[in-house]
Design a protein that fits this description.
Blueprint (H helix, E strand, L loop, with lengths): L11 E2 L13 H6 L23 E6 L6 E5 L5
Antiparallel strand pairs: 1-3, 2-3
Length: 77
């Protein structure tokens, strides 16, 4: 299940060490993940559960950011 902020959903994921979130919600998350402003000020970073066997692509560097990203699905968009 993807937890979302009202009006914002994303198939992109990130993680830190041991599958822990690498950022707290806020400016560091927005910059590291290159989240578009003002649509997402970095407050939409949430812990989610990924189902066993769910297809995930990645990791790869975030374009325009400093973090890494994964994508829910069989192919990168």
């Amino acid at each position: 299940m993807i937890q979302t902020v009202k009006g914002y959903t994303s198939p992109y994921l990130t993680r830190g060490q041991g599958w822990q979130p690498p950022y707290q919600p806020g400016e560091a998350a927005r910059q590291g993940l290159n989240l578009p402003k003002p649509r997402n000020p970095g407050t939409a970073v949430r812990r989610i559960k990924v189902k066993s066997g769910e297809p995930l692509r990645g990791p790869r560097p975030v374009k325009g950011g400093t973090g890494i990203e994964y994508y829910r699905g069989w192919r990168w968009p």
